[in-house]
Amino acid sequence: xxxxxxxxxxxxxxxxxxxxxxxxxxxxxxxxxxxxxxxxxxxxxxxxxxxxxxxxxxxxxxxx
Length: 64
Prior knowledge:
The chain is of the alpha+beta class. The chain is 28% helix and 30% strand.
């Protein structure tokens, strides 16, 4: 169940990235450095300790 929810939130994040033209995938160029990324997951709960929503963010390692 949780995997399906995370996949849905990841799809929403990718959809937002595509809608806002934030990211452009290009072919790998030999001799050039790439920027890696990772997914950050967060579960928001309300004051009654019930799950309010799941969030997924794609974060780059900009220090590379």
